[in-house]
């Protein structure tokens, strides 16, 4: 797949969005186990309430960007997130351009 050159301001902004989203993905992968452990222990009704509060506090102390809900699937060329093919990492408009329809 051929990468295009970054020339316009919009392309630079799109690259910043992709970089930010990539960093969020790395952070989410790094804290995934810890987040799931704290969440499970916090929601366990068999534990004492002070212990559950401790794990709820630990969960709240994790970085917000380490949650997978903050990650957006974006096109690798235009950073658009709507009409996104997750298996291609492309927006429908970019697919049309690559196929010569636009």
From TrEMBL:
One of its GO terms (cellular component) is mitochondrion. InterPro entries: Ribosomal_uS14 (IPR001209). Keywords: Mitochondrion, Ribonucleoprotein, Ribosomal protein. One of its GO terms (molecular function) is structural constituent of ribosome. It comes from the Eukaryota. Coiled coil: none annotated. SUPFAM superfamilies: Glucocorticoid receptor-like (DNA-binding domain). It is found in: Mitochondrion. GO terms for biological process: translation. Belongs to the universal ribosomal protein uS14 family. This is Small ribosomal subunit protein uS14m. It comes from Rhynchospora tenuis.
């Amino acid at each position: 797949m051929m990468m295009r050159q970054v020339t316009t301001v919009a392309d630079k902004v799109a690259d910043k969005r992709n970089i930010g989203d990539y960093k969020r993905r790395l952070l989410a992968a790094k804290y995934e186990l810890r987040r799931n452990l704290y969440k499970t222990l916090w929601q366990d009704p068999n534990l004492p309430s002070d212990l559950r509060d401790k794990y709820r506090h630990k969960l709240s102390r994790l970085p917000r960007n380490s949650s997978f809900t903050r990650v957006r699937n974006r096109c690798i060329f235009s950073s658009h997130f709507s009409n996104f093919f997750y298996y291609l990492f492309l927006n429908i408009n970019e697919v049309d351009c690559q196929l010569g329809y636009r």
